[in-house]
Amino acid sequence: MQKQIIFSIVLLVTLGVFSYTTLRLVRFFMLTKPAFKVRDTGKRLKLTMKVAFGQSKIFRMPVIGFFHALVFWGFCIILIGSIEMVIDGLAGTERVLKILGGLYDIIIASGDIFALLVTISILVFLARRLFFHIRRFEGNEMKRSSHIDANIALTLILLLMISLLGMNITYYAYTFKSGNELAGVFPVSSFISAIYNSTDTGSLHNQHEIYWWSHIVLIFIFANVLPYSKHFHVFMSVPNVYLSRLSPLGKLVNMDNVTREVRLMMNPETAFSAAPAEAEIERFGVRDVEDVTWKNYLDSLSCTQCGRCTAVCPANITGKKLSPRKIMMDIRARMNDKGPGMVKNGKDYDDSKSLLRDYITEEELWACTTCNACAKECPVNINHTELIIDMRRYLVMEEGVAPGEVKAVFNNIENNGAPWQYSSEDRMLWAENIEMTVND
Amino acid sequence: MQTKKIKVPVMADLHNRGEKAEYLYWVGCAGAFDDRYKKVAAAFAKILTFLDVSYAVLGKEETCTGDPARRAGNEMVYQMQAMQNIETFKTYDIKKVITICPHCYNIFKNEYPDLGADFEVISYVSFLADMMRSGQLKIDDSVLHDTIITYHDPCYLGRGNNIYEDPRSLLRKISPVLKEMKRNKSHALCCGAGGAQMFKEAEKGNKEIFIERTEEALKTGAEIIATACPFCMTMITDGLKYKNREEEIKNLDIAELIVKALKI
After folding, report:
1. Is the complex ipTM more than 0.85?
2. Which structural domain, as residue segments, surrounds residue B169?
3. Concatenated DSSP letters of A398-416
4. Domain map (residue ranges) of chain A
């Protein structure tokens, strides 16, 4: 009973902190703009199975992708055991899911094997970060705090796995020695439990309790650290994949407010009757974080700074300042900076800074070739190009700012219908004197 | 063997004679004005004529799709161009459009429908691959049989619209020795010209993107670098010049390679 009371208090504190975090994020989301209607449930589920659970895009880098897939699949299986621990903790039961019978054995056995595989994978990840120089973990946007963030997340997972294995090993050794009924199958832990051959049952029981508590408390800490860490993708990536844009990567979102204006210019009468005068004057494009859509913001929360986008960015590869990863990090950082002020004082709140220029420079934006390599590569279907174009839209349409040659292109298209300064009268010159060989 | 001059039909002329063409051949600004790419436009016209396809071009009535403006952030100019083009298409009751430029293809296919466009869009590589599959286009594989070819994926055919196999199926027929670059298909590196980069100086960096890509193409040992986009062609050709390899290694469009193989 005492254990149940303590556990309930710990769980309440955890849920309390978590609710605070969730509420904060919900308020941030409410500051963002609409994106698209979420339809096509079937298509989305299929995509989630493939990209999230199948880890299809992670495998674009096969070797290291394999280790990540192990961690992800392990996480999914071990999660079931964690839910069981919460039930046990609240109800005072012991391994309550054993009523599942053979299925329980499978879950516990795979969890036990995955605990070892995840441990190995995390050690590989830590080694890569600590001892090897991996280019994609570097870059201007990767500050000391980013590296610390990554190492804390990995260390927490490592501790989670060690405590899980410790729990399994002492549980197995204890039931084996005391002759109690064993619930579950432990292919890895039963093997290691030999080290406890000379330990008495009382001590084993205590050690198991220590591991049990360490594991569950670590889970609670982990869950509450994640939303403030780059590792938030543990929660956000699956929803982000489900909520992917379903259109081809080549497609840009139409600006309906511009369509209304253009129709008005081309045919004033029909435009008036079609669109009732709207009160709010919308800003064209993105200047600051309140101009981004909920999808852009969700993208930024799902980004774990793996840098695969930046590693394939042609601009970044050739030494330009643009880094797609930085764009995502900037949105999230900007919301953290300006969000609380906007929540408190309303959307008009001005801290005399903006996402454009104070975080993302014009130089970065104009370096993009819109090749979509970043979006194609992102394991959780983030779209960076969309936001880059939206910021260019603000620059061009609200401020009239663009490189000189680009402005000339605009003029040429408007005046001669081509990006170059040629007359439309000359459009058929290519077709003069085409000679074809007749083979007969 | 003799040569004949071909006449490229224009929509307005057909319209005046009360005739119609099945396909609009959308030439694009590069096809009309870029000296190198004009030859590609002509090559595709030759193929269409050879295959006896019912087609016509818009000629002087063609105008920019608005793609460079849109991707540089000028939605206003883009939408005005788009609405003008949609009106022109309606005038001639155009239902099927073939494009040689992937940027025109993408914007027609994915973005014009948002503004009320209703026509089928086909990339010339898919059109030709279909013709080959149906047996209408018979490519003579003896002409370039032992030539090593590598193919540079344009972003707006590849990643943008998942067209990877059609160009390759054509090229494999032209020469079985198709050697892939290290980064190919969805991993392909951009030539550096998209998103209006074609028209401006690159931002400060330590290398030009087109040189990085050309070097990768050269590593395959290919004698021909095949492209399927006017901007890619400008970039890769510049890359070959920069590397002083333009004499020995040719940058040709898929349409030009097919013209060679067809000996027309």
Report:
1. yes
2. 139-262
3. II----HHHHHHHHHHHHH
4. 2-30+61-229, 256-421
